[in-house]
Amino acid sequence: MTPPPRPSAGSAPPAGSGRCPPVAVLALALLYPLALVVQQSFTPDEGGTSLTPYADVFASESFRSALGTTVWLALGSTAGCLVLGFTLALVIAFVPFPGGRAVAKFIDVFLSFPSFLITLALLFIYGTVGMANGVWTGVTGASEGPFHFLTTPWGVLLAEITYFTPFVMRPLLAAFSQLDTAQLEVASSLGAGPARIVRKVILPEALPALAAGGSLVLVMCLNEFGIVLFTGAKGVTTLPMLVYSKAILESDYPAACVVAVVNIALSVGLYTLYRTVSRRAGA
For residues 196 and 103, what is the distance between their CA atoms, to the nearest angstrom? Predict the structure, then answer.
């Protein structure tokens, strides 16, 4: 009997053979727990399979309030990050100043910081017993300082903008580094002012990076938990905070899973929308 031919040393393995282990690991580590969450969302405490958890959660005022708070905080933070990130990236990339390269490197380090660390830093500065209130009481002799906004939605908004702005700046700085400076020189020689150069030359080149950074920040703000928790903002309940309160404080796991499924659907929907728009725009 003639033995089967051996594959040559340079022959490629069958298509898809190297994909099975990564897909299996992904399914085991992510998809299976996610499937359990979805299954639990259809399982009320009395057993069986029912849409009752969804009906109860959607009918509750706490869920509607948390959904509205999550959406407006995410949109407000994203808008603030886009404006502030674009401005700071312009200064770092096109305005020469001492230490500019060190600032650009610090942004890369800042991206590795946990969100609660930035929130704690803001608490040390603007908290009830923070530095700003301490200086105010020391100078005026008042019993307490005027800075109490960190425990309001505006404090959460400030903390999220402070933390997520570098996530917009990083792709912008990468886009600015590839911008042909000859275009800026030509526009300047033709009499265009700085504002017109930014609007007509720099901004069109930065739009894909702005879209990428803004979409990333929007999705991350929708799922942010640590900032809201560490600010201690009373009355500010987002969807992640509602999942925490339903699961840990109330032990209502079906309701917690329903809120989690809604949060996942929002994130996946936004990602799909971004991919569709960017594909049609040719980005």
Answer: 26
Helix (H/G/I), strand (E/B), else coil: 94: helix
Cα gap 234→27, rounded to integer Å: 38
Length of the chain: 283
Structure pTM? 0.80
Torsion angle of alpha carbons 272, 274, 279, 283, nearest 10°? -150
Over residues 215-238, the pLDDT tens digits come to 989 999 999 888 888 887 777 889
Q: Which of the two residues, 36 and 186, has the higher pLDDT score?
A: 36
Domains of the chain by range and CATH? 70-236 (1.10.3720.10)
Q: What CA–CA distance (Å, rounded) separates 135 from 268?
A: 46
Q: pLDDT for 248-274, tens place per residue?
A: 888 889 999 999 999 999 988 888 888
Per-residue CA distances from 19 to 9, 34, 85, 184 (Å): 21, 21, 38, 46
pLDDT above 90 coverage of the chain, percent: 26
Three-state secondary structure string covering 221-273: HHCCCHHHHHHCCCCCCCHHHHHHHHHHHCCCHHHHHHHHHHHHHHHHHHHHH
* Range 102-105 contact pairs with CB under 8 angstroms and sequence separation of 24 or more: 104/173
